[in-house]
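FW: tagging you since you asked about this chain on Friday. Here's the raw sequence from the shared folder, copied in full. Didn't touch anything.
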Amino acid sequence: MKVKRRSAIPLLDDSGTALQSRPVRKRNPTQPSLPFDPMPERVEPCLALLRPAPPEGPDWLFENKWDGYRLAIHIEPKGVRIITRGGHDWTHRFPTIAEAAKKLGVGTAILDGEAVVLNKKGHADFGALQRSLGGRGGKRASTEAGFFAFDLLYFDGHDLTKTELDVRRHLLSDFLNGATGAVQLSEEADGAGLLAKACMMGLEGIIAKHRDRPYRSGRTGDWIKIKCIQSESFMIVGYEQSAVARSGIGSLLLAARRGDAWVSVGSVGTGFKAKDAEYLRKTLDKLKTKKPVVPIKGKNYVFALPTLIAEIEFRGWTDDGNLRHASYKGLREVQDNAAVFDMETMAAGK
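HL: got it, structure written out here
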């Protein structure tokens, strides 16, 4: 049976004039084409909490963990901005990604994802990404990097951060359906066996995300990372001198955060090449300080101010809180404001 729809009858005030609601907010003149939610300048990223094993159950979505630089792509009416995890504009450092984002055919969007450089096996190579940018402090623009999007925070005038992940992923999949260029979709995977497969392939690990949660900034536990070979950022607080090692560096002294304080996590003496060691020695000598950042003693130690952030691969922790089988991967950009590992985060993840 077809039901005839009635036209809405306006509400009238005492004088018989139709009542009208006031606008919820004033229209932003710089964003005339956005009738709903104003586009944020930046969204503080959601971060994954480290756990030793993946969660179980249908409430979780799983992806491979990308070993690269966390970025947000802002597609705006006037162009594209690429923002780092620390809030810096790196559009000029990733021109290929920016150009691909312009061609996606959407008016407004914010994509959350990771910039990576893939090796011959199709795996993300952090060292290759660093080299493509000219190394730490380099000014090169990376034309080799691609972007894998894993979340959609804003789309076509709508703020999506308060919607559940399943909805955001559905919209993202439709938006990037078939994209194969420098901006692609980071595919979901079946949780069963994914960690074992990732470890067998030599990947860093996997990420588990709760399907029903909104996008919440910081380490809330909505996202969990499970690593095959652990890799984190630590502060270099000095080095051990050596008469036989390359450029005089026997090992780098490392520290992590514990709240607002620094705590020693041991040292790393493998993974850096002669060129790396030469740069590290030259830079750390400029940062020399007589007072160590962390209370460690050694007659061959040279202490440095906490400035250089190193990405370190390791196999676990000793009982006294030092890294096991640590290996140097490269330096993090200071401008990227990479988060140095916090021991309280590790404790929360247990």
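FW: The first strand starts at residue 49 and ends at 50.
HL: agreed, and Confidence is low (pLDDT under 50) at residues 1-13, 18-27.
FW: great, closing this out.
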